[in-house]
Amino acid sequence: MKKPKLKSAIHSGSNLLKAMEVFEAVAESGQMTAAARMLGLTQSAASQHIAALEKAYGVTLIDRSVRPSRLTQAGTLLHRHAARILNVVGDLEMEMRQQGPTPISVLRLGILASIATTLTPGLVAMAKKGFGVRDVTLHAGQSGDHETLLRTKRADLAITSNPFYDMEGLERHAVLQESFLLVVPSSYRGPTDSLDAVQRRLPLIRFADSTSVGRQVTQHLRRLRINPQQVIQADRSSMVTACVCNGMGFTMLTPTLLIDGFVERMPLRVLPLPAARLTRTITVVARERELGNFPAQVAKLSRKTLVQEIARHMEKTGSEALNLEPDRA
User: Fold this and answer.
1) Largest CB tally within 10 Å, which of 74, 86, 252, 308?
2) Max Cα-Cα span within the chain
């Protein structure tokens, strides 16, 4: 008896794997919207992949009659097998990419956008000269972008502000922990000993709530019971610092988020945060045991470069905001 052929759009192997990847993201996140965002797809495209899988196998994978939706018995079965298949394919892809003349012939790297320009030259030089890497692909972005790249195995390593403890199969190397600083226009002459006093004189300019930094600042102000009267939001540090240096308001940023602004000689005045300490940690995250000691060396070089640049541009205030042993904080 012949087995039935898959007759849908996922008949080709590549489309089948992509559809399984989308299904796994939906199963893990529990939401079609979240899964689509994680994979850089529209919700409609993600839904089409799921529908193609259901048509191909002649089953319903997701029970959409309940809220929140949940996997059917067939969906649970596919979830178990799809995870194993995708891991095997990912491992094969990594091993094939490393079949060049050196252990790491191709490298895909994600870097926080705020430090990408600062770190890229040194990291590329180390990868090529010290580890024989032939091809390097760099992605500048935020921690949410890095999560997508790591989950979909489109990055081997990320220098990020989220250690992704909820993701298995990763190794982590601390770079540094940094405290947020108060940043005002160089022309500002008002009080700086109270965030509430500053926000009464200047609008708050901060990262948008769609970013981890923006959410962190919002939560911190809420804990302090400070409700800024005026807020300007942006999703890049250069946009925030550009507004501040033009006298449009004040902000709260870490030293690494300020590097590009100082490199561009923006007139900024940086002070310790006059409130409870707020910090973030930068970590090198890589898939476990795939890159040898390269991730540890990336963390070491990143720490050295960032410390030097922060001391050069922000002097004592910037340096004192750093903790180079975050695991012991």
Assistant:
1) 252
2) 85
160-187 residue pLDDT tens: 999 999 888 899 999 999 999 999 999 9
**Cα distance between residue 184 and residue 151, in whole Å:** 38
Token digits of residue 274 = 């006059």
Residues near 278 by Cβ (< 8 Å), separated by ≥ 6? 179, 180, 216, 217, 220, 252
What pTM was computed for the model? 0.73
Residues comprising the chain, all counted: 329
DSSP letters spanning 1-20: -PPPPP-STT-SHHHHHHHH
**56 contacts 8 by C-beta, under 8 angstroms:** yes
- Strand pairing class (70-71; 62-63): antiparallel
113 token code pair:
């956008």
Burial class of residue 251 (count of CB atoms within 10 Å of its CB; 0-12, 13-18, 19+): buried
